[in-house]
Amino acid sequence: MSLLLYVLKRVAAYVIIFVAATTFIWLLVRFAPGDPALASAMRVMMAPGVSYTKEQMEEFRRRAIEMLGWNLPLHEQYILFWSRLLAGDLGYSTYYSAPVAPKIRELLVRDILLLSPAAVISWFLGNWLGAWAARYRKLDKVLLPLLYILTSTPYFLLGLVLAYTLGVVYPVFKPTLTSSDIDLFLTTPSLETFKRFLHAYTLPFLSLVLVSMGGWASGMRSLMMYELETNYARFLETLGFSDRKVAGYALRHAINPQVTGLGIQFGTIIVGGIAISSIFNYPGAGIGLIYAINFRDVFLLQGIIIVYIAMVLIACFIVDLVYVIIDPRVRLGMMGG
Amino acid sequence: MSARRVLVLLRRKISFWVSTAVLLSVLLLSVVGPGLTPYKPMDVLPVRAQPPSPGHPFGVDNLGYDVFSATVYGLRVSLAVGLIAAVVATFIGVTAGVLAGYYGGLMDYTMDSLAMFLLTIPPAFILIMIGAFYAAGGEGGAAMSEFERILFLGVAVGALSWHWTARAVRSQVAALKISDYVYVSRLSGNSSLKIIVKDILPNIGSYVFLVFVIQLANALGTVVTLEFLGIKASDWSLFARVVQWLQMGALIAGVWWAWLLPGVIIVALISSLYLLVYSLEEVFNPRLARW
Amino acid sequence: MEPLLEVKNLKAYYRTFFGVVRAVDGVSFELYRGEILGIIGESGCGKSSLVQSIVLPKPPLYVVEGSVLLHENGRTVDLAKLDSKARRSFLGTRISLVPQYVMDALPTVRRVRDVLRDIAREKNPDYEELRRLFIKRLRDVNLDKSVLDRYPLELSGGMRQRTILALATLFNPDVLIADEPASALDLVSQRQVLELLRQLRDEKIVGSVIFITHDIASVRQIADRVLVMYAGKIIENGTIEDVVKEPLHPYTKVLISSVPPLGVSYAERRLEGLRGAPPSLLNPPSGCRFAPRCPYAFARCMKEEPPLFKTEGGRLVSCWLYVGR
User: Fold this and answer.
1) Which chain A residues are closer than 8 Å to C115 by Cβ?
2) Which chains touch A (3+ CB pairs under 8 A)?
3) What is the pLDDT of residue B144?
C-alpha cells in the first residue's frame, strides 16, 4: 500500500464520518419534539412584539414549511439540506438576527486563535513535564497529585478559579471580555491593542492550557515509565549510555501515541473552549452555543456543531499525516516492506 | 493475583487509602447531606449573596438558594447520571470489546469503525444537540419526569463514551484468546460462549473494574460540563446556575462560595477516582511499581 | 597466570514487597584471558542475575557483598564498588553484555547508524572512524554494511543478534558476556552464533567470553570451562571435558544425562529426570540447597552447606560427598 493510497483511505474514512455525523444531527433537528426548526423559521418571519391572528400564524407556518422544504418527501429534504450546506448556507440565526454561516466564520477565527496555540503548547509542556516526572521519583511524588487534580478539574471550573483569583481579587487580567478586546488586535495590530489583547486573552488561554497539560503529562508519565523499563532501554544502558541518552530514546518511542492523541484531543479542547468562552465572554463559539441552547436557536446550534465537527476531522487528518512521517513502522508497512 | 496478596500490597499504599477515604466521604455527603439541611434546593430564601456562616455552611448564592442544599441535592443528580453513564458505557464497551477481540474479523472491523467515529466526534457535541432538544427543559424536556431525564441523560452519555473501553477490552481479550489455557479449553470441546464466560471474563474482571472507575470519572466530568452548558437533568444540577450567576455579575461581586465549594467537591470526587485507579494499577501490575 | 576477571563471594539480592530474594548467594570464580566460560543451570538458578550483578545491577537488584575484580592493563578495578558514572566508562568498552532478548534489544524508531552515532557521542571517538570499524565488524559477523541504514524491524532475528554482537564488540572488550545467545533463534542461526562467539575469541576481537545457557549441548560446542549453578550458588567448576565425562555433583550428573544421546531409542534407555523443584530463594533452606532432591543426600547435607571444595584431582565441587577425598 503506497502513501497515496493511505492518504486516500484516511480522507474517505473522515468523509464518511462527517456525512454520518451530519446526517445524524440533521435527523435530530428534523424530528426534534416541538418542531424547533419550524418555530425558528416562523420567528424569523414575524416581527417581534406584534401579535398575529390565527390565520396569519397559519400563513407563516405554511411559508416556513415551504422554506424549509418540509412539504417535500424526506429524501428530497435531505438532498436540499446537503445542497444548501455545501453552498455555504447554514440557515438563519434568530438570536443574532443574521445568517448563520458568516457569523460562524467570525466565531471560528477567534476560536482558532484561542484553541490552536492552547492545544499545541499544552501538548509540549505536558509531555515535557510528564517525561521529567517519569525520570525523577522525587519530582513525581509532588507532581502526580497535582497533575491528577488538574485533569480532574473541568475546564469551566478552572476558568472560574482563574477569573476570580487573577481577575477579580487581584485584577491582573480581565475576567470578562468584550469582543473588541480580541478583534481590535486582529484588525489594527499595535502595541496598545496587543496589551489590551493580552489583558483579555491570557486567562482563557491559561485555563485551557493548564487543564489539558495535566492530561498530557499524566499520559506521558505512564508511557515514559513503561519505555524506560523496556529491553532496548536496558540494552542501551549496558552499552554504557548515560541516563539522559536513554531517556532520549524512550521519549522518542513514547511520543508516538501522544501524537495520535493530539488530533483526538482537539475535539475535547473545543468543548473546553466552549465552556471557557461562556465564562469569560470570549467571543467564540461557546457563547453562541449557550445562547442557541437557551433561545432554541436551531440553525445556529446545528451550524456550530457541524462546522466544528469538520474542524476536528481536519485536525485528525493532519495529525495522521504527521504520524506517518514520524513513525517508521507505519511507513515501512506502506512501502511494501 | 490472589486476594490475600492484593490486600497485603494495598495495605501499604497510602494513595489507595486516601482516594478511598475521599471517595467515601463524597458519597456519604450525597446520601446523608439532604437529611442534614432544612432547606430544599429550590427554596428561595429572603437573603442574598451571603458568605458561609453557621446557619448556611456553604453560604447563600445571589439568587437566594442555600448553596449547601443545592450542592448535596445536585451531587445526587450528577452522581446518578454519572453512574448510569458509566454502567452503560462499561457494559456496551465490554460486550463490544469481548466480541471484537474473540471473534475478530467483521465484528472487529465494525467495532473499530464505530469506535473511530466516537473517537473523532466529541461526544459532547452530539449530547449538546440531543440535550438541547430533548432534555434541557424545552418542550421535549418538560414532558419527562426528573427520573426519566436522569435516566435519559445517563444512557445518552454512556452510549457515546464506550469506545475507549471497547478498545482496551478488545486488546486484552485478543491477547487472552491465544493463550494456552484458552487453547486447551477449546480443544476440550467447549463452545465459544462457554470459553468466553468461563475462561476469559474472569480474567479481565479486575481490568474491567478499573475501566469502570475511569469511565465513571470521565462521565462525571462530562456530566458536570454539560450541566454548566445547560444540558441538565434537573434544575438544581450542580453547576446549572453558574451561567446565570455570571450574567448577574456574581463573580465580580465576589460571590465565590457558590461555585468554588461545589467545585472543590467535584474535583475531589473525580481526582479520587483517578487516584484509586492509579493505586490499584500498581497492585494489579507490579511491574509498574517503583521500588 | 593472573585471571582477567575475578569474582569473589558475590552476593546480589532482589528487594521485593514480599521479602529479599537471594538470587546470587556467594558466587566465586575466575575467568582467564582467551577462555570461553560456560555457565549452565536451570531457569531461576540465578545465572542471568549473576551477570546482571556483574555488569549493571539495577534496583530491585542490589549487590550486597563481594567484589568483581577486573584486571586489565596492569590495573585492577572492583566493578562492584564503582558508582554509575564510573561504571559506564567500562560498559560497552571493557566489558560487554549481549542480552537474551534479541528481538527488541534495538530501539525500533531509530536506524542502526543512529545508535552508532550515539555510541560515538557517548564514548568520544570520531564517528567516521567508528563507522569504519563497525563496518569491518559487520563483515566479521557476516553482515553487509547496508545494515547501518536499516531499522531493526527490517532485520531478521539472526541479523539482529549479529548486529548487537557487532555493537557490543566495537571496542574490543576484555570480557564479552552472552546471555542465552541462542535461545531466541532458530537452530541454524543458533549454530552460527556459537561459531561466531568462538571466532570472536579466536581472532582476539574479545578477550574472553562468558556465555550463559541452559542447553548443555551448546556449551559442549564451544566452552573451555563450565560453571554449574544451582539455587544461586556455583556447585561445580571444571573444564568442559572433565565435567561432561565425569560429572561430580549429583545435580550435574542428572543434567548431563538428561541430554538424549543420538542413536539410542527411547525403548533402550529412558530419559532421566529429577523430581521436585529448586528451592525458593526467598527462604533458602539451611544446609545444601540441593539436598531435598538429591538421591545421595545424608544427614550432614541437610544441616551444613558445603563450600566449593577442591578435590585431589583439581576439580572444584560443592558437595559433602567429595570432602576429604
Assistant:
1) 236
2) B, C
3) 65
For residue C60, give how far its alpha carbon lies from the nearest alpha carbon of chain B (Å): 7
A332 CA to chain C: closest CA distance, Å? 9
CB B243 within 8 A of CB B230: yes
Task: Tell me the nearest-neighbour CA distance from A145 into chain B, angstroms.
Answer: 8
For cell 427554596, what's the residue? B43
Confidence band of C84 (pLDDT split at 50, 70, 90): confident
Nearest Cβ partner for A312 among B121, B270, B273: B121
> For residue range B41-82, what is the model confidence (pLDDT) as tens digits?
777 777 777 788 777 788 887 777 888 888 888 888 899 999
Residue C280 identity (one-letter amino acid): S
How far is the CA of C128 from the CAs of B125, C116, C131, in angstroms?
A: 57, 10, 5
Q: Which residue of C has its CA nearest to B11?
A: C17
Type and span of the H or E element at A163: helix A155-163
* DSSP strands (E only) in chain A: 92-93, 98-99
> Where along chain B do its domains lie?
3-284
d(C-alpha C183, C-alpha C297), whole Å: 33
Residues contacting C246, CB < 8 A, separation 6+: none
Q: Convert the pLDDT of each residue in A170-226 to its tens digit.
A: 888 877 887 777 777 778 888 888 888 888 888 899 999 999 999 899 889 989 988
Neighbours of chain C (3+ CB pairs under 8 A): A, B
Q: Which of residues 178-207 of B touch A (CB under 8 A)?
A: none
Q: Collapse the DSSP code of C229 into the 3-class scheme (helix H, G, I; strand E, B; otherwise coil) and give the result.
A: strand
pTM: 0.83
Backbone phi, psi, residue A160, to 5°: -65, -45
pLDDT at residue C39 is higher than 50: yes
Give the whole-angstrom CA distance, residue B133 versus residue A35.
9
Nearest chain C residue to B5 by CA distance is: C18
Question: Which of 1.10.3720.10, 3.30.565.10, 3.55.40.20, 1.20.140.10 is the CATH number of A100-334?
Answer: 1.10.3720.10
Q: Where are the domains of chain A?
A: 3-92, 100-334
Strand C316-317 to C309-310 pairing: antiparallel
Dist CA B243 CA A285 (whole Å)? 15
Q: Which residues from C are below 8 Å from A when comparing CB atoms?
A: 55-56, 58, 88-93, 96-97, 99, 101, 104-110, 115, 118-119, 121-123, 151, 153-154, 164, 167-168
Q: Kindly report, residue by residue over C190-249, the tens digit of the pLDDT.
A: 888 888 889 999 998 889 999 898 888 888 888 999 999 988 889 899 888 888 888 888
User: Distance between CA atoms of A173 and A165, rounded to whole angstroms?
Assistant: 10
Interface test with A, best of B17, B26, B120 (most A CBs within 10 A): B120
User: Regarding the domain delimited by B3-284, which CATH topology (the fold level of the hierarchy) does it fall under?
Assistant: MetI-like fold (1.10.3720)
